[in-house]
Amino acid sequence: MILTNTILEPFNLAGMTLKNRVGLAPMTRISATEEGLVTDIMAAYYRSFAEGDFGLIITEGTYIDQKHSQAYQYQPGIAYEEQAQAWQSVVDAVHTAGAKIVMQLQHAGPLSQGNRFVNESIAPSAIQPTGEQLAFYLGEGAFPIPREITKEEIVEVKQHFVDAALRAKSVGFDGIELHGANGYLLDAFLTPYTNERHDEYGGTTENRVRFLVETIQDVKKAVGENFVVGIRISQAKVNNFGYKWPAKEQDAQIIFTSLGQAGADYIHITEYQAWQPAFDTGSGSDSLVALAKKYSQLPIIANGQLDQPERASEMITNGHADLITLGKGALANHDWVKKMTNGEALKEFNPAQVLYPIANIKDFEL
Asked: Domains in the chain and their CATH numbers?
């Protein structure tokens, strides 16, 4: 099938003009240097998606400070100027190929499994994460018990997000995306079983979303106009795949309304299958994508097994999402948009090739 005209049309995302509505999803690829500097293979990797006609490139999660934010060994950072300048090759390569690029800013929180700066992790509460570390990202064994973050450190982390966003802007990124998904620090505040605080950041859903809201507000104020600030949201965690928000649509209403009012430019929803009901309450129930659109009134990016053109097009044409992003489908087809435009066959994703034994960028991918 050839993609519908709608998904191939340009889209204006908060002043950022995209040539189409298809983006590359952020995916950890642990291919930086040990010091967190971008490498040539990373520049070639991101350029290849832009050359394949993806309109928007969202980078892998990038750590923001020289303290607790690093999640994985060989993860890229933007914690200081040398790291920021190393990203220039990626920005230039993507822009030259005709795409826009947004950096995803990440704080690992309780799910750090490789940090060269400190020997501890921090979280809303001192609760050991479920599950085990990811072997294909060089992790091993159980997650350690994190230390509860202090209110003074919350202020500090918000400033680290601001500083990282300003560095990204200084080297030419078109925007940033806060990683508020998958169990990392911002999402850990949002999740009741990892957040047992009794201050204004714990308890009610309104309190648990507060850290995310304040971070958006602080970053938006610092970067000013003409620089996009989005946030990625999920229910699932990397260590708890089937998790659902306990208050269901009531949680969705509070969370998405709050994020919309905070001043975010978009919300990026990632679910296992983006079109499925958010809370397993029947075929007529709304997806999390639709709920995000309903309550936030913001542009919505949908992610989750949308590599088949029918599914991708439907998310746009039904009005639930404004853009879609691809992860595994993009890894198998760096030229996915070109193939769909021309009605060409897609390659199947082969996890044994790409993710194992280590999920770094392989030469054959380029």
From this structure: 5-365 (3.20.20.70)
Residue 125 token pair: 């509460």
In this structure, what is the dihedral angle of CA atoms 108, 109, 115, 121, given to the nearest 10 degrees? -170
Burial profile 82-94: b = 16 or more Cβ within 10 angstroms, e = fewer:
ebbebbebbbebb
What type of residue is 341?
T
Cα–Cα distance between 366 and 362 in angstroms, integer? 8
Q: Which residue is associated with the tokens 């020997």?
A: 119
Share of the chain above pLDDT 70, in %: 98
- CA distances to 57, 68, 159 from 18, rounded to whole Å, are 10, 34, 29
Tell me whether strands 300-303 and 323-326 are parallel, antiparallel or unpaired. Answer: parallel
94: which 2 tokens?
């993507």
- Alpha carbon dihedral 165, 170, 175, 181, in 10-degree steps, equals -30
Run means of pLDDT, 10 residues per run, the chain, 366 residues: 74 97 98 98 98 98 98 98 98 98 98 98 98 96 98 98 98 98 98 98 98 98 96 97 96 98 98 94 83 98 95 94 97 96 92 93 90
pLDDT value at residue 5: 72
Q: Encoding tokens for residue 54?
A: 């993806």
Tell me: cis bond preceding 10? Omega within 30 of 0 counts: no
For 329-360, what is each residue's pLDDT tens digit? 999 999 999 999 998 999 999 999 999 999 99
- Residue 106: strand pairing partners: 63
Query: What is the rounded distance in angstroms from the CA atom of residue 47 to the CA atom of residue 143?
Result: 34
The residues facing 300 across adjacent strands are 267
Helices (H) and strands (E) in the chain, counts: 14, 13
- Residue (of 215, 316, 230, 228) closest to 266 by Cα position: 230
What per-residue confidence (pLDDT) applies to 364? 87
pLDDT at 1: 46
CA distance 238 to 191: 13
Among left, alpha and beta (phi > 0; psi -120 to 50; other), residue 53 is left
Strands 56-58 and 100-106 come out as: parallel
DSSP 140-152: -SBPPPPEEPPHH
